[in-house]
Write the structure tokens for this entry.
Amino acid sequence: MSTIITPAQERTSDLYTPTKADKFSFGLWTVGNRGRDPFGDAVRPTLTPVNIVKKLSELGAWGVNLHDNDLVPFEATPAERDRIVREFKQALNDYGMVVPMATTNLFFHPIFKDGAFTAVDPAVRAFALQKTMRAIDLGVELGATTYVFWGGREGVDAEASKDPLVAVKRMREAIDFLCQYVLDNGYNLRFALEPKPNEPRSDTYLPTVGHMLAFIYTLAHPEMVGLNPEVAHENMANLNFTHSVAQALEAGKLFHIDLNDQKGPRYDQDLRFGSENIKNHFFLVKLLEDSGYTGPRHFDAHAYRTEDEQGVWDFALGCMRTYNMFKEKARRFNADPEIQALLAEINGGDQTYGGLLGSGYSTETATRLKEALFDLDALARRGYHYEKLDQLSIEIILGTR
Ligand code: DIG
Ligand code: MN
Ligand code: MN
């Protein structure tokens, strides 16, 4: 039976139909995921990069991202590499797609079984730098302006195998070296580090957004380096993803984002965006939209193993439509008079507390604060009306207001 794909232009368009303006992107490896898992073989045929570009464009996606070897096979000759890249660039042009982000596969080949930049074997560390420089060249050639580093195997199974102090230093040495490579070549490229707490290693170095933020400020070129947080990864660490994203945003370090979903702390599920944590994803999309985040809305996710190719495109369209549904819910939340009135009441009053807050330190302020008199009983008795606020939020999310 031939695969019947309904291109965006033929499908009934509604408020949630994705358009290029939404800046939705997918990795080649996401819709190209063949359904292999540790307990079962591939269930879907390989999709070619050109076919992926065509189908994603028809669905309304804006961009496609890639690891070097998603496009150019590990063993490709330079001539084969150039032919593949030429054909891919033609497809990008034909279907009006861009490549916002690129990255290196430093985790699939057996060479990297003990890591890449933190591997104990110096030949592996050196090869990882070579492979990454070549992959950076490829990404820049395709127009990428963000380069992601997910240190999938930068960690340990046997704690005795690596000195954690040395591992962090080796990671810094690699990132500093590659930042300098970008500067030497005049590339318009920023690095986005992607944390994950574990899997495939028992423990991964720099496991969360917080760890990565601290690491960035120890680098030689911290201005070039930001974050690529992923929903599933922070959830694996049992953290509030929206708060992780907020801290990256507030630090001016949200350079990219991997959107998907996850059923709490367990193996990395990379589920369809919004398929599980409805309330959390509402507030995540509200944060991204309210903050004016202008970067790609990238889905690092894949279809269930049960799916055929049509199921893959159902998955991709679902990611994008659900994002747009949360975006519309956020607009309704922000426009809801009762919610906004309640928020104004909750956050009302003189937030400077008579000029004592929000202006930083002065000896006069410190003296006035120390002498200030507080109605402690009234403060202790205050009710914040969060039950009402949260109920109104739920009613927005459930579509009853
Ligand atoms: C996994 O979450 C990682 C790899 O897929 C890739 O290196 C990165 C790109 O977003 N995410
Ligand atoms: Mn993941
Ligand atoms: Mn990811």
Remarks:
- The pocket of manganese (II) ion (ligand 2) is lined by residues 230, 232-233, 268, 270, 300 (CB under 6 Å).
- The chain has 15 helices and ten strands.
- Residues 337-397 form one domain.
- Residues 17 and 339 are 27 Å apart (CA to CA).
